[in-house]
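Below is how a single chain appears once it has passed through the pipeline. First comes the sequence as given, then the structure the pipeline wrote out for it. We keep one example in the README because the format questions we get most often are answered faster by looking than by reading.
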Amino acid sequence: MASTTRDTDARRDEYATYAPEGVTCPECNQPIGVLEPCRRGSVERQSGPPAVVYRHSKCAKPYRTA
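Resulting structure:
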């Protein structure tokens, strides 16, 4: 059971992966290449469950926690 903000913070990136074709980074609004490593994460939405997002590795750094 999640008991801390760190466990439930949807801004945290989940893991490194490759984005599907046509995905744009929400931080810099630039496309992510098909074979470009990126970070998968999620963002809260008011209208439903968190949405999956892909960010460039350099754009995701502010969201990483040790």
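The mean pLDDT is 81.

See the next section for the split statistics.
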